[in-house]
Amino acid sequence: MDEQRLITVTGTATEKLPANFVVISVSAVGESGVYEQAVTAAEQLSDGAVAELKSAGVDVRAAGVSVNVVSEDKKIVGYRAVKKFSAEFIYDKAVLSKALDALSKSKCEWRVSFSLKNADMQEKLITRAVKEAKASAQTIAAAAGVKLGALVKADYASSGGHMPMRMSLSAANVTEPEEITLSETVTCSWEIK
Questions:
Q1: In angstroms, rounded to a whole number, what is the distance separating the alpha carbons of residues 62 and 50?
Q2: What is the mean pLDDT of residues 32-39?
Q3: What is the pLDDT of residue 80?
Q4: Based on CB atoms within 10 Å of each CB, which residue in 5, 61, 179, 184 is the most buried?
Q5: In the sheet where 21-32 sits, what is the strand order?
Q6: Does the pLDDT at position 1 exceed 50?
């Protein structure tokens, strides 16, 4: 198709929505001069925090264990074991409060992240972006004294279905997440007659 016989327009649709999903990432750290003791310390810390979270009504998902060597002057002096896990749930202020209270009883390191879990929103934004692009193309065509023909090309870079993480906090006074701004962009080309 001859590029000079096209109108190409980029449409963008944006929406601000309250975050509705919480991920609490937790690390239980155990250190010792003996490998097995470092791992055991991390596991015990983890087991206690997992039990506290479960008693708060939150499901927990294991993420893995890693062990690093602690060195001084190029000599191994110990081991640092880190057992990671996470709690994920639909945002509810009371549930979040219980989960954070439970974690405050542990000696684990943790971080709270908020995101948006809404499978339909991405599709709605793409549809709006295409409609916006078409309306702009029709305006340009009318101003140029031509008619808009068939859509011949649409470019869209998928965000992979993942909504962005908005904020992370590690303080125990987390109450409500901020709104998340979502945006989808589509570039469309139409024939002109």
A1: 10
A2: 94
A3: 96
A4: 184
A5: 60-72, 75-90, 21-32, 109-115, 167-169
A6: no
Question: Whats the size of the chain, residue-wise?
Answer: 193
Give me the sign of the Cα torsion angle 46, 44, 35, 75: positive
The pLDDT mean for the chain works out to 85
Residue 26, Cβ density class (10 Å: 0-12 exposed, 13-18 middle, ≥19 buried): buried
3 state DSSP class of 134: helix
The DSSP annotation for 78-130 comes to: EEEEEEEEEEEEE--HHHHHHHHHHHHTS--EEEEEEE---HHHHHHHHHHHH
In tens, the pLDDT along 81-102 reads 999 999 999 888 888 888 988 8
Residue 126: φ, ψ to 5°: -65, -45
Q: What is the pLDDT of residue 174?
A: 55
β-bridge partners, 133? none
* Helix, strand, coil percent content, the chain, rounded in steps of 5: 30, 45, 25
Q: Tell me if 137 sits within 8 A of 150, measured CB to CB.
A: no
31 in helix, strand or coil?
strand
Name which of 87, 92, 115 is nearest 19 in CA terms.
115
